[in-house]
Amino acid sequence: MHGLSVAQAVVDEIVAKLGDTVVTKVRLAIGQQSGVVVDSVRFCFDLVTEDTSLAGAELVVDEPPGRDLRIVSVEVVRECAAPAAAPTTPV
Amino acid sequence: MCGTCGCSDDAGVRVNGHTHEDRLVVLEQKVLARNDHLANHNRKWLADRDVVAVNLMSSPGSGKTTLLERTIREMGGAVSVVEGDQETEFDADRIRATGAPVVQVNTGAGCHLDASMVARALEKLDPPPGSLVFVENVGNLVCPALFDLGERCRVVVMSVTEARTNHSSIPTCSPLRT
Q: What is the least distance, in Å, from the CA of B141 to any CA of chain A?
């Protein structure tokens, strides 16, 4: 029900901002008076992230007072930067 | 996985000794940013046409549709309605019987109207300039309060038996944003 539309909105916003960058962690702020049930969002998050760049991402939820409903931050897998002197090996 | 060194690509060149690390990206973005953006688009669309939209909310069975029927019949003037329900056209049929133009939005499993549904309904309804649009939200006192539709103001309908308890125990309805 409600958790699904919130979870889907979270995934849509992150993908819109970051494209197919792999996301390993998502931190949300879900206000205590926001009317959103955190457990429902957790449950739906795993469902809606399957087969997306957020698959398997850890979900962390802060529950401050108030009505805020916000994506605070995400952690992404950094595109690698090679050490300067590393030799390359053709495969 | 990595677009730089091609480490996920079987035929690629490997750079030895490199690692991948997680990087924190601060977003601080409202979850409902997209809905809010569309709601503001609706707000502008309505203002450009000098149309006032009222978002009517209540729990199921409180009397929204009945109140609307009476209001339309007794008020006169140009009034049209966006009717939100999970299923059926029953409420739209009742409004239609008053002679007011009405568009039914069925949300299916959805428990609230959102700005994109209202945008599509308003396009279809095409309210004339200077008129009033009532958006009768899905019967639900919690979720509709979270979703800005682009309305000028919100009205909560509560039956006498509900008023005393619901007003204080359902925080999303009290106080209301207008």
A: 10
Contact B131, B59 (CB under 8 A): no
- CA–CA dist A54, B2 (Å, integer): 15
**Which residue on chain B is closest to A16 by alpha carbon?**
B34
Q: Quote the mean pLDDT of chain B.
A: 83
Question: For residues B49 and B43, what is the distance between their CA atoms, to the nearest angstrom?
Answer: 10
- Select the residue of A72, A75, A88 nearest B28 (Cβ to Cβ): A72
- pLDDT greater than 90 at residue A75: yes
Cβ–Cβ contact B111 with A under 8 A: yes
**CB atoms A81 and B34 under 8 Å:** no
Average pLDDT over residues B70-93: 90
**Amino acid A90: pLDDT:** 64
Report the predicted TM-score, pTM, of the whole model to 2 decimal places: 0.74
Contact indicator for A32, A62 with CB cutoff of 8 Å: no
Q: What is the ipTM of this complex?
A: 0.77
Q: Is A42 on the interface with B (CB under 8 A)?
A: no
Counting Cα atoms < 13 Å in the Cβ hemisphere of A21 gives 24
Start-to-end Cα distance in chain B: 47
Q: Say whether residue A89 is in contact with chain B using an 8 A CB cutoff.
A: yes
CA distance B51 to B43: 9
> Is residue A56 less than 8 Å (CB to CB) from chain B?
no
Please indicate whether residue B135 or residue B165 has the higher confidence score (pLDDT): B135
Task: Tell me if A81 and B145 make a contact (CB, 8 A cut-off).
Answer: no
Neighbours of B88 (CB within 10 A): 10
What's residue B1's pLDDT?
46
